Amino acid sequence: MLFPILRLLAVFLLTLAGAVLVIQLLLWASPGDPVDLVPNGDEIRAQLEQEWGLDRPLPQRYAQFLGRAVRGDLGTSLTYRPGATVTELILPAAGRSLRLLIPSLLLAMGLGIGLGFATAGRTSFVRRLAQVVSVAPVFLLAFLAVHLLNELAFYGMEAGWFGRPDWFALPDTDSALKTALAIAVLAVGSGALAEVHAAVEDEMVMLRNAPFVDAAVARGAPVWKHVLWNLLPPLATIAYGRAAFFVGGLVIVEKVLHLNGAGSMLWQACRLRDYPVALGITVLAAAAVCGARLLGDLVRIAVDPRLREAAQ
Amino acid sequence: MKATAWLGVGLLLLVGLAGVLTGLLPEAWLPYDVVADVSPDQAGLAPTAGHWLGTDHLGRDVAWRLLLATRAFVGPGLLACLLASVIGVGAGAISGYLGGPASALVRYLSTVTASIPRFVLVLLAIAINGNSTWLIGAVAGLAYSPAVAEAVFGRIDSLKRADFVLAAQAHGLSPARILLYHLLWVNCRRMVGRHALNLFGYLLLLETTLSYIGGFGVMEPQPSWGNMLAFEFGYRTANIWGVWAPAVAIWLTIFCCGLVSEALAERRRA
What we know:
The structure holds two protein chains of two kinds.
Chain A: H1 2-29, H2 34-37, H3 45-52, H4 58-70, H5 86-119, H6 125-134, H7 138-159, H8 176-188, H9 192-208, H10 211-219, H11 223-256, H12 262-271, H13 275-303, H14 305-311
Helix pairs in contact in A: 1-4, 1-13, 5-8, 5-9, 5-11, 5-13, 6-9, 7-8, 7-11, 8-11, 9-11, 11-12, 11-13, 12-13, 13-14
Chain B: H1 3-24, H2 62-68, H3 74-98, H4 101-114, H5 118-129, H6 133-159, H7 163-170, H8 175-213, H9 225-232, H10 241-264
């Protein structure tokens, strides 16, 4: 049991190190000088170059960034909140974002499984509808939902059906409805639901034709129990395959619905050209995706003994 | 292919043609001036013969802006598809043919790029290098190419010892012909086409999202389906098409990409 886990951990660390390298390569390949992005860059040029390692070749710069990141030092904010360390800025924001991310991933999986059970093996109206709705980009769904809710509330208030709801007018007020909307939109939009649904359905069709399900039917044992348990490993794969899309969608949802989290902080940092904060959040996002992958793989080897044996 | 898929192809071709034409023609030749067309006395008009989709709250023609907005994503989308297909197919074919460390490298690169959210990567790139839709296309294409490479690699790796390859070798066909025609053209073109279509839809999503949120992407007064939506938000005018036309356009175009991509999927023989 120990060896497969260590192997997964090694894969996690290698992938994350590679992701950081890709980000560093992006910066390195950019024709501009990052110091120029800083409002008073020329005055503190020497200091910034030393801090970011710009005066050194790429491998050393990469090693320096990685070495500091391991110790939790991602630099100091320049314009977003000057002087604050990036770590103290982004960690609380990431916590707030996780409260959207995890429920929306779970909701997408739940909806996918539910619809998959309902439609497995046949093209149905429900399936088409899920596809049609899910195709809309996250921002469009959020926009339309906000637009419709506001219109409805407006007409309701004008007609005297109800007083001003506490969430009116979206997205400017903070309310439970807005958070729920964000979670739902993230779980459905940009093809999330359609892809999860299709993947779950494929797995289910395969499972239903599996010999052990036939055996269960012959024994008179409940089939859904067998199907659900065997669905867990592919579900873990689907979930971590979607994790990167959800993290990307998070930036959009937080920005469109004016929510306060790592995603809107990233956008703001990019607008203000706060290079260390933007970089820090990107690395954190990559770490979150790699972490999801690690978690999914751990679930897989915990559930499926064949994978454990294969890794030995 | 089914009739609906052909409908999708037709719509995508129309959008593509509009994007290429409005993108290539000099600004002076276009019968519509983006900057000059502001007439507050015609604000929020419902559709008429002069304004097919009515006007927005500044009195600008919605139909023309909808048409001109295609140039914001068609060119960059094609660039992204070209980059992803060329690099992806090249790397996938070479690693699939060589095997060994090259294939491990492709798989590693694919895992690594898949672990950075593409939206975040694109945002970072335009924040550093300046805002440009072409840059969005280039970064999205580069970031997508390892996924194409892995798919092509998987296909070639699974087929390179197939009977038809052995037969071709026995006939004395050159390895280049076997690789380029028998493996890539016959067996990978639909798959690569699907990836390209998905990427094109994704690029439309990227561009409209960035333009909608504002600050990056296409900026006013230049039109984008994204910033047209954002611009009409909160204005209650008589013309509902100011909001619905770009929303439907985004929805329909991405839906068509999915539709055609689905039609291109090879049916597995049961």
